[in-house]
């Protein structure tokens, strides 16, 4: 059994989602957004770091999964996103969490089956996969989707390793 913290980084809104994985079973533990309503970037980064640190302390996750940087049309926005991502990763590393990164397209493909899925589709599938009463807020849904992706990728890696082990012994179950 493990607890996974997923982060959808943003300089103004950083989504987070926490799930528990027990074998193939996923259960929802919590989600929300860290909202930075100050104007200067250093203060926003400080709030993101403090918020992620607080979430780590509250939920004691075993793994930290975050969305990879993507190329944005606006270079300034991409730099701010990278800095927000960086402080979230530093918070995880300071709490000795292993960090895993997933591309947005990979997350959408894993959760919805479509790499170019819309936010509403991701929200709907996160709701269904975690058996939630309603759709989570968009940034929180993205963070939960990142955590779900980590569970599926790690589960598949374990199965592939097990299959290789059995194959090495001369049989495949």
From TrEMBL:
The active site is at 8, 67, 139. Mg(2+) 2 binds at residue 67. NCBIfam families: PRK00039.2-1, ruvC. Homodimer which binds Holliday junction (HJ) DNA. The HJ becomes 2-fold symmetrical on binding to RuvC with unstacked arms; it has a different conformation from HJ DNA in complex with RuvA. In the full resolvosome a probable DNA-RuvA(4)-RuvB(12)-RuvC(2) complex forms which resolves the HJ. Its cofactor is Mg(2+). Belongs to the RuvC family. The RuvA-RuvB-RuvC complex processes Holliday junction (HJ) DNA during genetic recombination and DNA repair. Endonuclease that resolves HJ intermediates. Cleaves cruciform DNA by making single-stranded nicks across the HJ at symmetrical positions within the homologous arms, yielding a 5'-phosphate and a 3'-hydroxyl group; requires a central core of homology in the junction. The consensus cleavage sequence is 5'-(A/T)TT(C/G)-3'. Cleavage occurs on the 3'-side of the TT dinucleotide at the point of strand exchange. It catalyses: Endonucleolytic cleavage at a junction such as a reciprocal single-stranded crossover between two homologous DNA duplexes (Holliday junction). Mg(2+) 1 binds at residues 8, 139. The gene is ruvC. Keywords: Cytoplasm, DNA damage, DNA recombination, DNA repair, DNA-binding, Endonuclease, Hydrolase, Magnesium, Metal-binding, Nuclease. It is found in: Cytoplasm. Pfam families: RuvC. Binds 2 Mg(2+) ion per subunit. One of its GO terms (molecular function) is magnesium ion binding. It comes from the Bacteria. GO terms for cellular component: cytoplasm; Holliday junction resolvase complex. One of its GO terms (biological process) is DNA recombination. Its EC number is 3.1.21.10. The keyword Metal-binding applies. Gene3D superfamilies: Ribonuclease H-like superfamily/Ribonuclease H (3.30.420.10). This is Crossover junction endodeoxyribonuclease RuvC. HAMAP family: RuvC. CDD domains: RuvC. InterPro entries: RNaseH-like_sf, RNaseH_sf, X-over_junc_endoDNase_Mg_BS, X-over_junc_endoDNase_RuvC.
């Amino acid at each position: 059994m493990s607890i996974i913290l997923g982060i959808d980084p943003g300089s103004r809104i950083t989504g987070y989602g926490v799930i528990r994985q027990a074998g193939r079973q996923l259960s929802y533990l919590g989600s929300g957004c860290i909202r930075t309503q100050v104007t200067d970037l250093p203060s926003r980064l400080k709030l993101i770091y403090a918020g992620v640190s607080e979430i780590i302390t509250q939920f004691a996750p075993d793994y930290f999964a975050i969305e990879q940087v993507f190329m944005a049309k606006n270079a300034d926005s991409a730099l701010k996103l990278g800095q927000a991502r960086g402080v979230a990763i530093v918070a995880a590393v300071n709490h000795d969490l292993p960090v895993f990164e997933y591309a947005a397209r990979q997350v959408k493909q894993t959760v919805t089956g479509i790499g170019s899925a819309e936010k509403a589709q991701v929200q709907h599938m996160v709701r269904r996969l975690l058996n939630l009463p309603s759709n989570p807020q968009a940034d929180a849904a993205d963070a939960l989707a990142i955590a779900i992706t980590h569970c599926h990728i790690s589960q598949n890696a374990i199965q592939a390793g097990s299959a290789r082990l059995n194959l090495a012994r001369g049989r495949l179950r």
